[in-house]
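== Folding the chain ==

***
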Amino acid sequence: MLSAVVGGAIVVTAENFIPIRAHRAMSVEQVAAKVLPSVVMLQMTVVHQDTTRGFDVRSEQGSGIIVNSDGLILTNNHVLTNPEVVGAAGQRENLVTLNDGRKAQFTVVGSDPILDIAVVRIHGVSGLTPISFGSSANLDVGQQVVAIGSPQGFQSTVSEGIISALHRPIFEEGSLYQAIQIDAATSHGNSGGALVNLSGELIGVNSSGNEGAYGLSFAIPVDQARRVADELIATGHATHGFLGLRATSNSDITNISNADGAKITAVNSNGAAAGARLAAGFVVTKLDDQPIANAGALAAAVHSKAPGAGITLTVLDPSGSTKTVQITLRTDQGSQLPSPESLEIAA
């Protein structure tokens, strides 16, 4: 499949888009040979000379994905925002190492903490190999995938696995998004690397793993990542869908027994939810065809969509009656994500 760049944005045209299932699968060796040239290692280093302790070196590293021949690279926001590095004083170097060993400086184009996506640009390098884009719209649990990145600084590491689950709500380090859960081995340094199908096409951006749990890792779906990356390239900022409500998980509801969902606790009078006549006390149980287990799942599903997207919510009113409502999401009105310990979440 071919991708094109229009005005700096990442574009997949209809005539070049072929559904994932129509592709002939390659071996993992073939996938690695195709994708490795498109995955890089990012390193951020700050060196401070202390008169009493000598040199103090602080660094962070992660992975990135080449998205066009002009040097734009897709990665995770958290790779670029380690406070020990960002806040340190001293001589700073932001370096990309390509798969062939070449090195180049990079600058940040834009970043989005909510979806944990960032775009950087490398300078003075030619002959880049952009990734081929797939889609995350038709993924299946059990589908084979390959993860490529730089775990613990070991560049160009390849691991294979399967998709373990879809639509997992991830809430960490100020980010909230729906993720692809995989069992491919990843660790610190894989963040920002490529998750690809057996056609060597990008289907996700590796974002997090559980260091204490083997076979439990997550990736941001490429369709979400590409939308946000396009906005970052065009404007330096990203937007997210917004219902205009606050919600908590439904465990404290007494008049609707054994009901999962997100209980609405407050509604913005000027927001999309109010326009659909939703109010405090309603419980959201489904967004489109996706069950909503709790408030975090609702917020992750909503923030993963673009402003202007139309959705269908299935809700229970305070009496326990079920109804569906059609809502057009609006722009996130600058709401701040709460800490994971908060009982309420904005959506």
Observations:
- Residues 13-22, 252-258, 334-342 have pLDDT under 50 and may be disordered.
- Residues 256 and 267 are 20 Å apart (CA to CA).
